[in-house]
Amino acid sequence: MASLRLAASWALLFLWASSSVLAFSVPNPSNNFTCQPTQSASGSDPIVLLHGLGATYYEDINELESWLKGKGFCTFSLTYGANQGFPNVGGIIHIADSALEIGAFIQQVSGSAAGAGKKVTLIGHSEGGFQALYVPKFVNGISSLVGMIISMAPPTHGTSLSGFLRPDLLLGSLAVTLFDTVVELVGCQACSDLVDGGQAVGALDNGPIVQPGNTVTIIASTHDELVTPPDTSFIHEPDVTNLFIQTLCPHDPVGHIGEAYDQGVWNIILNALNGNPTAPVQCSQGIPYK
């Protein structure tokens, strides 16, 4: 009986959520729209960080964001693509719908004191990396506001459904049962969009991906267990640097989820922000590799 009551409660919540506005974004309350970079990051553009499938602004890209703030950068983040009934699981609605939320947020950052006279830099992981490429291409007026794009492990050309729906790999400390429940009740529209042959993948790959005025760094891992083969993340167009982590850190075993938390990757990102993504880095093992 208890399980039936629980199921009924979830069903009622689902019906309420479905009858409400589905798209639901949550800005990071620590976003400071008057932020100016410190001397160590002097002249740098404001950075918008985009989390992966099933994650939030406070999980997945949060440690990288804190690290970049410590380096003097002005950073901004949000939970995008959540269903209104389930705000703790982001990135599950259709890619195109999430893209509108992200585009509006980029416009907000660009129009703020932090963005005055500057371009916006996008840094995304997994689905967020895909969105960093998708939004400038498909949301009107955004490509001209964006300068640099740094994309970690994006499913640029699709991925397998069985791999991409492994919540134990995708969500880190977020309860797997929560993700399972949300997917069961609401569905995961983004999952369908991002698999091989998915609608968003097909749209992104139709014609040039990189928009005029945008420069892109793709960071992938040879050990990626979700985006397979890993080089399907790469874009073979002008103004793109494609880089395997193991090119600079050959002994780094990091996989898909770990990219967002790997200090070797963070240092590659820092080099990219400074205009030289292939420069030698301090790897996560603490051993510099040249």
Automatic annotation (TrEMBL):
Gene3D superfamilies cross-referenced by the UniProt entry: alpha/beta hydrolase
Start and end residues of each AB hydrolase-1 domain: 47-167
Keyword Signal: yes
Protein's UniProt keywords contain Signal: yes
SUPFAM superfamilies reported in the protein's UniProt record: alpha/beta-Hydrolases
InterPro entries per the UniProt record, alphabetical: AB_hydrolase_1, AB_hydrolase_fold
Signal peptide boundaries: 1-23
Keyword tags: Signal
The name this protein goes by in its record: AB hydrolase-1 domain-containing protein
